[in-house]
What does this fold into?
Amino acid sequence: MIHDNGAGQETEAQPDSLRVGVVDWEQPALLEQFYPDDLPADWRLGFYANAFTAVLVPRQHWMNLSTDERDEWQDLPEVFHLYLEAQSPQDDESLSALQALLPGQFVQPVSSLEPGVYPQQGIAIINWPDRSMREWRYWLEQHGTNIHALFLGGGAVTIGQLEQCRDLVELLGL
It folds into this structure.
């Protein structure tokens, strides 16, 4: 992820920092607010990956990837991480095949898209509107060092909420 450091220079996100993303980069609110109208659908993930460092992909999306989508996924930045919902043993076989097609990409299975903290997987899925910024600050101070990825989910997510979360994580140095 590239950031303006205030001096007009772009910097790359630290690879060991807490990654912030969304459950499904093609949520209706993001389609309306985030992506340019003329952006081809198969470029959306790449566009998203230039602003955020992770995405949690629902099972139905990654299980049905077209060849063009797979090619697009291969071109994602190395600092970008893909987390894929995997619920059954059959998913493990498909996930292994996908990982083989994406050498150099970080791909991790996730067992649920439901909001919660999943320490075994090192992730949390939160519903951002549920709390104030102050409450999220305290929550992040408590949980942020025990997870490596934080996803906004549990309903419609706006680009403003996603940016607020990312900014708060950065301000806290997580």
